[in-house]
Amino acid sequence: MGRATRRKSKSGLILVLIVVLVVIAISSMRAMSLHEKSEELAVTERQLEAQIQAAETKAEELENREKYMQTKKYIEDEAKNKLGLVYPDEIVIRPSKGD
Hints:
This protein has 99 residues and is mainly alpha-helical. It has helices at 3-69, 72-83.
């Protein structure tokens, strides 16, 4: 091999090496970007799961309240609290207004 062939071979090898390094650098940056995006999505997912859990808890509380509101106990409690009604055999004890 002559000197010119070796130079072409070296410059071709350097060019290939540069291209490989550029591809590796771009791939590394893209991987880091995807990793950050993955972490952001994981945080969002956890927040949404917490909101879903809170909504399910609220829905259960509302269902229980709705069931309670259909009972005789609820009607009695409302009659006592809002209308001041009592059964004839009940004794109501109220604090004096002077205290």
